[in-house]
Amino acid sequence: MKNEQLKQQIIAASKEIGIDKIGFTTAANFEYMRPSLVKQKAAGHTTGFEHQNLDERLNPDQIFDQPRSIIAIALAYPTKISERPQRTEFKRGQFARASWGVDYHHILDEKMDALIVAIRKLAGADQTIDFKPMVDTGELIDVVVAQRAGLGFIGLNGLLITQEFGSYVYLGEIITNLEFTPDEPIANQCGTCRRCIAACPPDALLGDGRLNGQRCLSYQTQTKGLMDPEFRPMIRNVIYGCDICQIVCPFNKGKNFHFHADMEPDPEAVMPELVPMLTMTNKEFKLKFGPMSGSWRGKKPLQRNAIIALVNLKDRSAIPKLLEVIDHDPRPIIRATAAWAVVELSDLKNKDLLDFLITAKSKEASDQPEINHEYQNAIDKLASMPELPNQN
Ligand code: B12
Ligand code: SF4
Ligand code: SF4
Q1: Which residues form the 4Fe-4S ferredoxin-type domain (predicted)?
Q2: CA-to-CA distance for 49 and 351, rounded, in angstroms?
Q3: Which atom of ligand 3 is least distant from the CA of 249?
């Protein structure tokens, strides 16, 4: 039994710190993941958000001097808003649950720092003890570490599913040169269920726990360019992330934990009024969305998604604001998405709108084929609609 007493003391300390689940694994490599990761990259199924050095992702000893163990942690997050925002004249969007409250990277970083302080105290004055904490943006693959450390199993939706909290947990891990008896990994428990695969709108789940990240709506809401028209209706009014493969999972049924005050969602921020978002200043954006993880890509993707959501909600009252955006917004991606949106929200050929779009297109730089293409498609679609009846 390696450091069994210390391990038990760490588990007790983690509870006091507010870590909801903790597990231990060895610092052995994760090379068994290599063939699948290489294949996924070659197939174009990665997003670019993964750590780019494959050797470092799979080998703790390449990122830490003489590692002995990895301590994996999970924090459960809420899935229901206690107080929905008031009804107003504006339709609302939604952020996926992993973006509710304060950015989870900060919350987990703080918890892991507190745990490291506690372990140092428990382990005595040994100066050679070392730690490397990471969450999400670190080298290691969080779900794979968590699975080997016994926190839960990896479902066919690719996510780590715990018995107590389902998959609604954030994951982090600490590499250390302390040695602990590893916990038992948990095998997949999906059984014959295939609900997440069937429910995923863009068919992004490959069926064996792997994902085509490029097709995942969560990724699509985080890109900075134009969104491929195929995915636009699929995001509905969700302007950041996607929770569908979690909502349908039986292991998530009834899971809604409010353990951490800073994970509580601000209803006005996680279900924001869409039209006012379109002309928000940077300062207003930072104030309202800055603390949330969903703002990490900045204002533009969320505004682009807000425009798409307005179309999905069939909100014709947004048309005047969209026209203002086409006229005044300095960003071609936003102008072109707005041009698409006004036409999607129209069902009759309006000569004034057609002229407006033709003029707007002529003002766009000619060296941006995607932008011009977006305008041209909108113009062609409007031109092919039945005429607006003569009002005279
Ligand atoms: C890149 C990334 C994304 C990308 C790609 C996702 C992906 N699955 O690859 C995008 C932007 C699409 C994304 C979306 C989301 N993400 Co993300 N993402 C990551 C990140 C940074 C890297 C993941 C990675 O390396 N993927 C590449 C490989 C590993 O994926 P793959 O080829 O599909 O391989 C899978 C299979 O091999 C399978 N697998 C391995 N062994 C076994 C064994 C069995 C038996 C089975 C069945 C499967 C299986 O698991 C692998 C991972 O899914 C991690 C953080 C981290 N550093 O790990 C967070 C992370 C996975 N994301 C997270 C979250 C919350 C999400 C979203 C739910 C957010 C949202 N609401 O929109 C969605 C869920 C989408 C989904 N179904 O996976 C959490 C997941 C927490 C949890 N409970 O599992 C993580 C761990 C961040 C964190 N620290 O909390 N994400
Ligand atoms: S997050 Fe949404 S789009 Fe991505 S795999 Fe899950 S259901 Fe599919
Ligand atoms: S929905 Fe079903 S198949 Fe998908 S992860 Fe959950 S249990 Fe597994």
Answers
A1: 181-210
A2: 44
A3: 1
Domain ranges in the chain are 4-89+97-176, 279-300+316-392
Ligand 1 pocket list (CB less than 6 A) = 36-37, 40, 47, 49-50, 96, 98, 135-136, 138, 141-144, 154, 156-160, 167, 169-171, 188, 209-211, 213, 216, 218-219, 222, 241-243, 245
- Is the separation of the CB atoms in 204 and 217 below 8 Å? yes
Q: Is 311 helix (H, G, I), strand (E, B) or coil?
A: helix
Per-residue pLDDT of the chain (392 residues; tens, 9 = 90+): 578 999 999 999 999 999 999 999 999 999 999 999 999 999 999 999 999 999 999 999 999 999 999 999 999 999 999 889 999 999 999 999 999 999 999 999 999 999 999 999 999 878 899 999 999 999 999 999 999 999 999 999 999 999 999 999 999 999 999 999 999 999 999 999 999 999 999 999 999 999 999 999 999 999 999 999 999 999 999 999 999 999 999 999 999 999 999 999 999 999 999 999 999 999 999 999 999 999 999 999 999 999 999 999 999 999 999 999 999 999 999 999 999 999 999 999 999 999 999 999 999 998 999 999 999 999 999 999 998 776 55
Mention every residue, 6+ apart, whose C-beta is less than 8 A from residue 41: none
State if residue 200 touches ligand 2 by the CB under 6 angstroms criterion: yes
